[in-house]
Amino acid sequence: MSASSPARPIKGAALDDSQWAALMKYAENKGAVMEGHHNTNRVVDLPSAMAGWFGGSLGTPALVTVRARKPEALPVVIRTWQDEGPVLDAVGLFLGNVPRCLARRDDVAVHSYVQGVPLSLTCPPGEFLEPEMVRALAGELARMTRVRVEELPPLPETWSPVRRLPGQSAEFLRTLALAADTQIRQPNWAEFGGLFASLGVTEHALIDFSERVPKLHNRPFSLLHGDLHRDNLIVAFDQPKRPLICVDWELAMYGDPLHDLATHLVRMRYPSKQWDEVIEAWCRAMKEEGREQVTDDVAGDLSRYVDFERAQSVYPDVMRAVSALGSSFGPGDLELAALEVHRALEAAERPLQLSGPPKMSTIEQLILRWCKGRGARFLEKEPGARWTWDRDERVPLRSEFGEKVVEEALWAEALASARQVFKGATHLSTVVNAGGVDVVVRRKLGAVTLREPRFLMEHEVLGAIEAAGVAVRAPRVMALGKSELEDEFTLHTYEGHGGPGRRAEHPERGLLPGEADDLVDQLYALSKVDARPLDQHRGSGSFYRWLCLKLVRMVEELPAESARVASKLGLPGARWLKMALAPRDVTRRGKVLLHGDLNPWNLVRLGHRGGGHRLALIDWEMALVGDPLYDLVRHMHLSPTKQEIRLQMFRRWSALMPAVHTCGWQKDLETYRQLEVVRSAYVDLDRLVTGEGLDAPNVRRAVGSYSTTLRQALHYLGMGAAGQAALSNPYLVFALPRADDGVWGKGTAVSGPGLSLV
Fold first, then answer.
1. 123 near 194, Cβ under 8 Å?
2. Lowest-pLDDT choice from 58-67, 436-445, 481-490
3. For a disulfide at 705, which of 17, 322, 604, 739, Cβ 3.0-4.6 Å?
């Protein structure tokens, strides 16, 4: 297949000094910041006057990305060309769907913005990619071979072997190894050389690797992306034929296409079982592109390029791990850094012929010595040391848990290992022992946007439960305040077993029958708590319609990019959503205190503590006062719940609760469930677009079935035709996470409101 005819290039704009200054100031004030390893990116919607400077080629909205190279960034990559702009011009001639460099000065460039979602958010690293997406990616790699060398900027003098001996793959690999030594190891050796030497990585490791390069099969050279991983692949929702857009071409180079495949395999973090599928798709795509010679002896040579990728990665991986510790760190941070260093050394052991990574304890000592030598402070407890804090008067100190014990807990938090730290969607929790009591130090994650509203203060909710003396196993608040670093914290009793260092057990796969009964019994006990002082929704108005109003307001406040993607997927805006929800309502029932977020990770199995199948209910920050049916339905929406357990829970709940709390519940069940599906369609999409909270297990599970959630939400909202149009892009369907294990909480269809539950 011959290369397609090049399209007419679009040249960048020539902005004068005043225009450039105005653009930079506007981007700094209005741009949404996205930090990368090498650049600070600001995405900004330009006003019409500024958009006109670029000749009306931006479209609507007039979005651009302002990319500024970080001067403080460590030199940890191989760069063939310092200016990405001419590379984008060349790539755009043949591939078309890549960003355009609109303007550039020094280390700042203005690029056209690519609308879509990074593949890393819809399919995170380590997860299988759908076969259709694998084939699409292989096609993009094959199309890169269309870019002719004469269209690219001249190769630098350091790449003279590649210019002099085109197609000599062994010479190309040797040049790569020498470039890694020149551009990565040498600039950093004065600072990090002692550490590398102590870890067993010698000064000549890459030079020695270059001298061991064996004879390789010669392949025609072509343009290589050089850094094609999931963050650099954008799923475009409005291009069904070629939805994958490759961005960030600053590490592009010219050479053996097999190197691009090797780099892609490693940095995409495919599961090992998918490597053969990706390699086969790549070979097929190259042959269809008319580049069959490129596929010669792939089985023999690919491992050589994979070895190089792992060999050169030891330098950036180690340097980033220790640099991230900063000016002060604790044992938990040190342990995580040592784990990353050990992983990098292990991967590079064979290709660099290292003697094997040192023991973890030795690596920690080496890192600690290196950091202390550069003035970093290791937060270890010294005799007589104190960790001061200011108490929040809203929570009185208990007689058995005074100020000294709180200080002890804060010191223990600073010294905690990675096994004691648990990261949720909105909080970082550290389990420690202070004063002989196992407690949790909870801190809000400052960078997280709380998309779903919070209505009550968690410490007030837990105080009301404790004061009521009801049979609800919830944490007790021990202290509330700010540490000397001005960061707020809460101390709760630890509801688990085994103490610090042992992970709490959660019903991730669903409740056992005894646990289901125990949860219903605790929901019944909650109805006995006097919730009137806490009630944020006073009066006799409809609780369901109040929930709908809060959902509409949340949709109104979605970030622009999340709202834009939602529209592409067929989800209505706030105004239409309000009209769609307006006709529905539920029976008025007596209001009680609700937990509000009974997902599996907020339920703790107590094991031997008390025996039986008993649960503790933690994380009450989304508590509210309302219809008790809602808490039960939302739990089943957030958790995998088998049909028999669902029936059991509703039977027990309807038998225990007074009639004022259960009247008409059967006909309202599906109404609440549909509302939660619609809510998830917006909340989970926002998480996919922004990337916030994706490392929390409950969020990962929720977004893991997003394709199903979206289809159900569109159906419930009567958006069938619009939804089908939005999902007509087949690659969009493949890119959206989906899973279905046949239980509530994983996108299972429900036939109707009755459900034969009694």
1. no
2. 481-490
3. 739
Closest CA to 729 of 44, 268, 122, 43: 122
pLDDT band at 741 (very low <50, low <70, confident <90, very high): very low
Query: At 43, which helix (H) or strand (E)?
Result: strand 39-45
CA distance 573 to 551: 11
How far apart are the C-alpha atoms of 543 and 586, rounded to whole Å? Answer: 8
Cβ atoms of residues 309 and 351 within 8 Å: no
Percentage of the chain surpassing pLDDT 90? 49
Unique residue bearing structure tokens 């909105």: 426
Rounded distance between C-alpha atoms, residue 499 and residue 490, angstroms: 18
pTM given for the model: 0.69
3 state DSSP class of 693: coil
d(CA 337, CA 363): 9
**C-beta of residue 528 within 8 angstroms of C-beta of residue 628:** no
Residue % of the chain over a pLDDT of 70: 87
> Which H or E run includes 368?
helix 360-372
Phi, then psi, of 378 in degrees rounded to 5: -95, 120
Q: What is the DSSP letter of 129?
A: P
Distance CA 380, CA 41 (A): 37
Residue 6: what pLDDT? 36
pLDDT one-digit tens code per residue, 488-505: 889 999 887 766 656 788
Paired with 401 in beta bridges are 398
Sheet with 39-45: strands ordered across:
32-35, 39-45, 63-69, 108-112, 101-105
Secondary structure string (H, E, C) spanning 616-645: EECCCCCCEEECHHHHHHHHHHHCCECHHH
Give dist(CA 701, CA 704) in Å, integer.
Answer: 5
